[in-house]
């Protein structure tokens, strides 16, 4: 219904060209997802490399459902496929023929064809009713044709189980009946062992007496009645007695037939217990000792039973092949294997080792990612798997406001909570930090009245000011005595607070900085607001980041906290009045002061000299990005750099400010990367790049070239010194890369 409405009102869009599908435009409909496309669009898509299936042999993929097709559509047909190039009729569905659909429905067991008019989308379910039997086949019911639900009655199944002896006792069910769960006692082939098994288990291995082999010696009496069977437990019957006269035809060593010995006067054997005549020759049967080149044989005369041990000696290698010894039996050397085991951590240390894989049998024992449990797998290479233990208790923050519901993987940190910390504190001052999972709370940031060490001045300070644990020597800017052992915090009136550790000396407070010992009440109020933010972002402050406080104070407070003007301020005012009198625009640059190029910080230059190739590549990328956005039709263009260390990211951020490019860092270490975005009209390429500035500085430091002169012949009319030779090129040794 939705497809019909959108096609009729021309609101349906082709996924290939993103244009509206007109009611008179030739279309093609996917028979798997029923999306409608322009016929020309789907032809182009099917021939494009992007549409090919992954294996390369399954044809092209539908843009919507990715279903592979082998044939490319060529003709425009109606939805049911009976009419080519259907004409549009305002009283019919667009792209349909107006006749009965007649397609086979999706239900495999429905014999009825679709009986509605030619339509887009799947055919509706069959409305006909048919009679179906239940799963056990005992009852019948009238249901809709093609209904996928199975019919179950309340009768017992009663079908014969796999054992062939018992019947199914389950209520009418789908699929095969479960195996018989009754137990039966089975006996082994030799009759000495029994075991309990499920009824019908391995009945095909029965020999009529037993059902399995117990792997013991059979021991049954043979047909002779005098000897027992020496084979492993086996199905009946046992073999003939190997000593029967009708079975033995040769002497014990096998070299002479018994018929020939009978002609020489030997007594004929009547029963199996009669001795087998000996030929009197050397036995000659091969022994287990020796090697492939030198086979040792039995030197005894023809005899019954096993051969005697070998009397010879030979050079035999140990099983690992490291040592050779003259002996009659195999032996093991005392060499310990020094090869690494499969884990790569431990050595084999086996004596006379013949192992090829050297699997480690020790337990790994390393701590898992949760930090609480250890790996119980056999010692292995690489990282251990994540901890498989899971808690089914709720994990909450300290105050209980934020909750992580089970199952909670082992090692999961408590959830972050925005509520105020409710832990007991050492002081009774107001709490400004949020709820946290650490046992120890951050230092108190409330301002209190405290005397300096020399009892010269009563100043507002933080109640607990030991922020980083460092104890620098700080002197009062007024009295010069030592202040409290804390890490000094200075703030700039532009709205940023930074953590520094300078020596507070006389006269150090300048026009841009105020120390805590010399603050006005308004400035102390600003500092108190800034300290609240510092307490929650202490980690970022120690890394050199800043905290924005301009939004936390009013313009009136900001105006009251301004500094007194000095000589530089007066000079700027005088220049501004002179520019107004001469009608000079503030944006103009008559003396090319601003066009001299951007100013790069000394820190940025120092970092660039360490990795000049990296800086050159970054500037090339930024230049291409700025040119592309200024020449193209898009207002913004972005580029994502790969993950890199903090120093490289800082270089990118500083260069982005020079180019007027926005830069943002994403993800956590060690995958943290930078994304830069150039904006049309805002991002510009500087006249002097950082690499060109460094090249000029290096050239200015290089010594001037020394001219070379050649001496001429004295007989000539020219002077002794001729014109200087062509200057050799100046090599900038500061620009040579490793």
From TrEMBL:
The keyword Transmembrane helix does not apply. Keywords: DNA-binding, Metal-binding, Nucleus, Phosphoprotein, Repeat, Repressor, Transcription, Transcription regulation, Transferase, Ubl conjugation pathway, Zinc, Zinc-finger. PROSITE patterns: R3H, ZF_PHD_1, ZF_PHD_2, ZF_RING_2. GO terms for molecular function: DNA-binding transcription factor activity, RNA polymerase II-specific; RNA polymerase II transcription regulatory region sequence-specific DNA binding; transferase activity; zinc ion binding. Residues 14-66 form the RING-type domain. Coiled coil: none annotated. It is found in: Nucleus. InterPro entries: NFX1_fam, R3H_dom, R3H_dom_sf, R3H_NF-X1, Zinc_finger_PHD-type_CS, Znf_NFX1, Znf_PHD-finger, Znf_RING. Residues 695-738 are annotated as: Disordered. Belongs to the NFX1 family. This is Transcriptional repressor NF-X1. It comes from Pygoscelis papua (Gentoo penguin). The lineage of its organism: Eukaryota, Metazoa, Chordata, Craniata, Vertebrata.
